[in-house]
Amino acid sequence: MELTVSRWNAHYGFSPCHTAELRPKPVSRCTPENMLNQLASIRIFAKVAECLNFAEAAKQLGISNSVVTRSVATLEEHLGVRLVNRTTRRVSLTGTGELYWKRCIELLRQLNDMDECIASAVGEPAGSLRIAASSLYTTTDLPELLAAYRAREPRMSFELTVFDNMSDVAASEFDVCFSAERRLRDSSLVCRPLAQTRDVIVASPDYLARRPAPRTPGELASHDVLLASDAPSRYWEFRDTHGTQRVVVQPIMNVQSPQVVKRAVQAGLGIARLSRLFVRSELADGSLSALLDDATLCGDERTVWLLYSGQPHMAVALRSFVDFVVEHYRQKSPQNKAQEEERVGPAQHRSSNTELLLGEIL
């Protein structure tokens, strides 16, 4: 018996809507304009998938919400599938959207690599670097460093994340990181020391006008002390010819941000120990005074570290920036040229991972 289309559908249980889904979508003409529009939609979709928020994606891309919404809808129409689930409360990816996002990431990475190949050929790195930096470093060396690099490479741009604690930022969230730590945690990243600084105990003239400056470390026990979260808490140790003296301090405030501690010290709230690099301007202009300079403070060393992923094929822009940073600090400290490499952390067996250049900086 010859089956008509309608009888065939009825026989196998297909409704008209099912056959409509099976009907192939008309293929749009492959013109340069269509390809560029699709690529733009892919970039926008990838940002939406990353943020899971249309408004935040629009903000990061510097475009309107309506453009983001329309681009994702156009991409879904082109593919004939739903990529994003939208509700009034949240945005999520469909299963197909998850798969498509992974392929989009691969595609966009390849496109960036192609751009960098051209930039490398003409000797001009281009693109955007994701930089994470501690609040201490962002208020000291970083602005000068970025300004100097941007003057040399005007096609580069930066996305900056500021943190008070290294645990607040994940390695996947940055291309390069600047951290000022007393003790570097185990890491699978390449870790290069750039500079060293020491802590100094400081107070403001207003505070010292109310409370006489401590003449010995032991007198700190009777003073108001402000603690940054990464500072040794409850006691400070000093060393002299007679040995080590542990002084129990009485903190009246303990906060995570060194910037807040510095402002509180300037306001006359109390005494604090902060990185000398962090307060060098205030020490120079007299808004803060150094205390107990004749006493040796134990555990006062800090190292400014440069951290980045040790991939076998480093992106041109990242390599250019790392080389610039290292040379910048080498010129600032020409005497520090010796290099010693030592493996630490959980990935000691991998030659491309952690490289701690201990002893001499750079």
TrEMBL record:
Q: Where is the HTH lysR-type domain?
A: 37-94
Keyword Transmembrane included in the entry's annotation: no
What Pfam families does the database record attribute to this sequence? HTH_1, LysR_substrate
Q: Which CDD domains match?
A: PBP2_CrgA_like
Under InterPro entries, the record lists: LysR-type_TF_proteobact-type (IPR058163), LysR_HTH_N (IPR000847), LysR_subst-bd (IPR005119), WH-like_DNA-bd_sf (IPR036388), WH_DNA-bd_sf (IPR036390)
Asked whether the keyword Transcription regulation is assigned, the reply is: yes
According to the UniProt record, where is the region Disordered? 333-353
Entry keywords, A to Z: DNA-binding, Transcription, Transcription regulation
Q: Which domain of life is it from?
A: Bacteria
What is the similarity comment for this entry? Belongs to the LysR transcriptional regulatory family.
Protein name, entry field: LysR family transcriptional regulator
